[in-house]
Amino acid sequence: MRYLVLVALLLLPLRAMAQDLTIFAAASLTEALRDVGKIWEGQGGAKLRFNFAASSALARQMDQGAVANVFASADQQWMDWTQQRNLIATDTRRTLLGNTLVLVMPKDRVRPVQIGPGWDLMALLGADGRLATGDPANVPAGIYARQALTHLGLWAQAEPRLARSDSVRSALLLVERGEAPAGIVYATDAAVAPGVAIAGTFPADTHEPVTYPFAVTRAGDTPQARAFLDFLAGPEAKAAFARRGFKAE
């Protein structure tokens, strides 16, 4: 009897750990999802473990065997990629949030910019300044930036001057530190960085909509994971996302 009690006590931490949920989420969702997570856990939900990075990096980690319960991408492309590889439970996929693409500059050097036809991006960057953004080869923020600059006829000039970062937050940091005179990030990123300010907003018709699809993964498909995804679509989570500047989809 004592042996059984001892075994049960030893298994308690393992059972608790098994109930934890691992969330792989785009870096731009960091503060908002932490806010939502506190509400969820405060109501008795499973403990959340977050892994924030570029959507491309997270998708590849999952493809290489990393186990998550929920994946949140900053674009449809990388969610499509995981779906094509059978990494997500497709019946759970839903787009919950939207964002805005903006140009940021160091706060002490910012000047308003009208982004549109005739915009002189090179004059803004100066003789050797670089434009910080996510790597357009795979990071969603960079992919949106390439679309916008291409639409404006500026991509050929801008491409050699890019400071390509492994995530939108890395790009934001380059601008905040003054290592790049300007960067292309999301409005919600600019809101959490005291050292930068928004200089201009890219017109919505210059790029695909910035949207965030969420899904439960096939490897981590549990009732708790599905419950958390339902919670993310609920009123309390929507209010928390809105406070961080995200738009409900």
Automatic annotation (TrEMBL):
UniProt cross-references to InterPro entries, sorted A to Z: ModA (IPR005950), ModA/WtpA (IPR050682)
Record's keyword annotation contains Metal-binding: yes
Gene Ontology CC terms, in alphabetical order: outer membrane-bounded periplasmic space
Signal peptide boundaries: 1-18
Keyword Nucleus: no
Molecular function via GO: metal ion binding; molybdate ion binding; tungstate binding
PANTHER family per the UniProt record, alphabetical: MOLYBDATE-BINDING PERIPLASMIC PROTEIN, MOLYBDATE-BINDING PROTEIN MODA
NCBIfam families: modA, PRK10677.1
Family the entry assigns: Belongs to the bacterial solute-binding protein ModA family.
Quaternary data: The complex is composed of two ATP-binding proteins (ModC), two transmembrane proteins (ModB) and a solute-binding protein (ModA).
Protein name: Molybdate ABC transporter substrate-binding protein
Source organism: Limobrevibacterium gyesilva
Taxonomic placement: Bacteria, Pseudomonadati, Pseudomonadota, Alphaproteobacteria, Acetobacterales
